[in-house]
């Protein structure tokens, strides 16, 4: 399903509202790295995010090593950032540290 990419203004507003997230160098994704006490905590977080992502039908790209979870949010259907990434980033912030 097609969804619009954020305009430059919308992207700037989104970044201002999500201070813990960074814009990937190409401007097409949001990134944030989370660190937890151990793997169990990290995987518990990933499980919560996975359930949310399934409900939203919007899925993160992520990389986990032990207690670290690197998340990249982008919208494949838009070829870049959309409101779905902003919404998911905000929701994920509610789970992480
Ligand atoms: C068919 C299904 O709705 C789409 O493939 C969804 C699934 N999850 C998705 N996740 C992300 N990150 N981007 C998408 O464009 C996307 N599209």
TrEMBL record:
Keywords in alphabetical order: Lyase
Catalytic activity field: (4aS,6R)-4a-hydroxy-L-erythro-5,6,7,8-tetrahydrobiopterin = (6R)-L-erythro-6,7-dihydrobiopterin + H2O
The organism's taxonomic lineage, starting at the top: Bacteria, Pseudomonadati, Pseudomonadota, Alphaproteobacteria, Sphingomonadales
Any one biological process term the GO annotation gives: tetrahydrobiopterin biosynthetic process
Species the sequence originates in: Novosphingobium fuchskuhlense
GO molecular function: 4-alpha-hydroxytetrahydrobiopterin dehydratase activity
EC number of this enzyme: 4.2.1.96
UniProt superkingdom: Bacteria
Family: Belongs to the pterin-4-alpha-carbinolamine dehydratase family.
Protein's recorded name: Putative pterin-4-alpha-carbinolamine dehydratase
């Amino acid at each position: 399903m097609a969804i619009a990419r954020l305009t430059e203004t919308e992207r700037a507003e989104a970044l201002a509202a999500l201070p813990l997230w960074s814009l990937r160098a190409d401007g097409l994704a949001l990134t944030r790295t989370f660190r937890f006490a151990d793997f169990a905590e990290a995987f518990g977080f990933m499980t919560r995010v996975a359930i949310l992502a399934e409900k939203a039908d919007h899925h993160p790209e992520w990389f986990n090593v032990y207690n670290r979870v690197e998340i990249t949010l982008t919208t494949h259907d838009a070829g870049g950032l959309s409101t779905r990434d902003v919404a998911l980033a905000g929701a994920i912030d509610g789970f992480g540290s």
